[in-house]
Amino acid sequence: MAQPNPRRMDADAFFAWQQRQDRPYELVDGSPVLPPKMMTGASQAHDRVVVNIIAALHRQLRGTPCRPTTADLAVRIPAGNVRRPDVTVDCGEAAPRELAVRDPRVIVEVLSPSTMSFDRVRKLREYQSLESLAHILLVDTEGPRIDLMSRESGGGWSQTAHDGLEASVALPAIAATLALADVFEGVPFDIAPP
Q1: What is the spatial distance between Cα 184 and Cα 179, in angstroms, rounded to a whole number?
Q2: Start-end of H helices in 67-173
Q3: Phi, psi at residue 15, to the nearest 5°?
Q4: What count of Cα atoms within 13 Å lies in the side-chain half-sphere of residue 9?
Q5: Cβ distance 174 to 61 under 8 Å?
Q6: Predicted TM-score (pTM) of this structure
Q7: For residue 115, which of 164, 186, 43, 10 has the smallest C-alpha distance?
Q8: What is the DSSP letter of 193?
Q9: Neighbours of 72 (CB within 10 A)
């Protein structure tokens, strides 16, 4: 397996380098790094939530220019980093050989206890810098909860929490809705009775 190149690189050099690797990396502050989920693997809860979200979005977006993608496709951050969200909805023209999405509208990060604060702070700020992005979902696998950040007409961001399996999350920028019952289908929760 090829090791990360220790020299600093820009996003174009990173993608040229990435094509020779056997695992997907992120570019962080000019250096390629393995995302934590690529180093340790995902839990069953994490994996089920990702698959459920992709399946629900795929059904709703058929026949539109938008499609859900996995972490195999990267997102270019304007400041130079390259990230791999768990799910991205790309509404750009398909480019079969490209390693990154062209027009991200929705980004989903499924939170892990070990990366939760990083995802909620640094990655969130990076994602909010994407001009085309309309919605960011932070999905908590410890309980049926999704925090939705949506870009407002003035450019700021609003945040709403959606708790419980009866809730649903509206994503008007792509004309889709995610029911938490669908997102968390098959995910067991360790919730003590009252």
Answers
A1: 9
A2: 116-118, 124-128
A3: -65, -35
A4: 18
A5: yes
A6: 0.90
A7: 43
A8: -
A9: 8
Q: How far is CA 84 from the centre of its chain?
A: 7
User: Which residue type does 56 have?
Assistant: A
Which tokens go with 48?
């089920």
The two tokens of residue 14 are: 């990173």
Long-range contacts of 111-115 (CB under 8 A, 24+ apart): 111/138, 111/139, 111/140, 111/141, 112/36, 112/37, 112/42, 112/43, 112/46, 112/141, 113/142, 114/36, 115/36, 115/37
For the chain, domain boundaries: 42-183
Write down the architecture of domain 42-183 according to CATH: Alpha-Beta Complex (3.90)
Structure tokens belonging to residue 130: 């994407």
Could you report the per-residue pLDDT of 121-154, keeping only the tens digit for each? 689 999 999 999 999 999 998 889 999 999 999 9
Q: What is the pLDDT along the chain (194 residues), one digit of tens a residue?
A: 455 555 789 999 999 999 999 999 999 999 999 887 655 566 888 899 999 999 999 999 999 999 999 999 999 999 999 999 999 999 999 888 999 999 999 999 998 776 655 566 689 999 999 999 999 999 998 889 999 999 999 989 999 999 999 999 999 999 999 999 999 999 987 654 44
Assigned token pair, 20:
């020779």
